[in-house]
Fold this protein.
Amino acid sequence: MVVHGLDWSYMMDKELEKRVDEYVDEVWDNVLDDIATLVAVPSVAIEGANEPGAPFGKDSRAALDCALGIAAKLGYQTSDDEGYMGMADIPGESERQIATIAHVDVVPAGPGWNTDPFTMVRRDGWLLGRGVIDDKGPAVLGLYAGAFLLREGVTPRYTFRALLGCDEETGMKDVPHYLSTHEDPAFLFTPDAEFPVCNAEKGQFGATFTSGVITDGKILSWSGAEATNAVPSQSICEVAVDASELPAPVANADRLTIEPVGDGRARITAQGVGGHASMPEGTLNAIALVLGYLKETGICKGDEAQALELLSIIHADTTGSALGIAASNDAFGPLTLNGGTIEVKEGRILQTIDVRLPNCVNLTELEDTCRAVAERFGATLNVDHAVEAFYIPADSPAVKTLIDTYNDVTGENATPFSMGGGTYARKFKSAVSFGAETHGLVLPEWAGLMHGPNEAASEAQLKQALKIYILAIFRLMELDL
């Protein structure tokens, strides 16, 4: 292939990188403007919305239209799969595809923000806003990465397709619908995790523990995260006890407040440290803080006290040790456990769990263990979802191409890794996650993690990711897939 009179291999080595650097600098302000435009759409997917052309709700559809508009502006051929998935294409010599996939839906904003979550803010080299890193910012990067082919007048060996999903955060029902009428790409990566390359994703197990009916209970309401896959940064519990009768907190006093909400009622509010359920390190579950205070006061008796004992086992650790489900292996690392949402309904306490598990764990045995613990406390267990682990060999040509590209740009000697998060990659035959975050990046004190308040992304990190993605796409086009 010849590009602008240059030999392809030479351009891959020297000239391409120079042109990529120039392109990234040239378009960067446009990239930021487009991220801001997409962040402004409060696109929380609504499960079961089932509106014509908007199966996950009008806001999710609006974000899809916004992203497709960006793609069309950049020169892509755009279409959509009945609102389930957007497609932005650059036709190649072959109809087989090298693809990317990112999602335009987001988790709810939740409490604790210092800025409007749906207004992107630039501050000291960082972007703030819901979706700047998960996954609207990377979605825009993917579109601009492919658009470099158009800018250079390149007809790629394979068709390049940028897929735009609408339901990643609430179940990934968009991909099965898409694949029911479209072929799998020859290879796909999703910019919805961390660099360098994740070739192994833990299995997932989600379930709800429901207590027995509680008579004469004190807990009137209780809230946690707005999604099961989030570590709650705030938890609020209202109890049928006069605030004057509640003692000051002994443990975690700086994170708990007690206030009256009427005669004979009090509100307990806990401030934790939110984050993604698959990465509990560094988080602090706010439900556990409320739970600790309720047990400290001793106001719950009988059936209610029994329910709290079950919750204590669930919230004892993030490894599942107390629950009896802890596991680990070299390929995937340790199991993680998160209690994300909680509510009081019809006299019962409902607590969800989100478990990310290595491929050495048998899902049936895991369910049996959890159910046995529930029954010890007069509770029931309902399984919401169970998904096996996903793995692509690290020595496959496409994975080696991505890791080599990352190392060439960064000067590192990184190797592929596993993670607890579930991405779109597991839905395709040949796919991995590839950035856009950098592991161990230190956030300013006013910035937050994905799924938590004050979600932040480093501009420098995103800018480097755009370069990596462009080079990776060019190199993937050279493979015999």
Observations:
- Confidence is low (pLDDT under 50) at residues 1-10.
- Residues 110 and 385 are 24 Å apart (CA to CA).
- The two ends are 17 Å apart (CA to CA).
- The longest helix spans residues 8-39.
